[in-house]
Amino acid sequence: MPLVLVSVWPEKYRNRSSGYIVFIFLNLLRMSARNVERNAGIFVSNPTNNLKTKDMSYYFNTILGDRNFDDVVEDVKAGLAVEGFGVPAEVDMQKTFKIKLDINFRKYRILGACNPEYALKGVESEKNLGVLLPCSVVVQENEDGRVEVAAVNPKASMNFVDDPVVQEVASEIALRLERVIKNLG
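^ thats the sequence. predicted structure below, dont judge the formating
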């Protein structure tokens, strides 16, 4: 029997595009064969009951005053280290856009922050959690010259992972990333 997916979106969500495909896909994965048979192949999803992130921001940020961009990047790395994170990945978007697209873009650096202890705990509990790792921290220069630092909120990004260990890890990592952001100002 073919599977038909019907999703009812409240008006306030209809103009947003990000997250819907993931939401639908994750709900589809959660269905058991029994549910498909019981519902005659029709799955109805109402995100007002299931979408926990609707009131939760997907990032924490701060905007710093008169600070040198490269100094802020180093301060962020030092703050991450204090909280147990390494930075195994770093992407210079300004340089990448110039090389690949010949576009002049503002200073924009993505740091992939990883706390190995918590990453291991999460991946041991949920084998595919790595698709959400590492935690991204962005350092960017705004139009007014001030430097903004933003970090992903892992409680929002891991919200759909139905695993209490992962939720515990996400909460702890969120606290640590928030401290990094708060300590910059």
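The mean pLDDT is 80.
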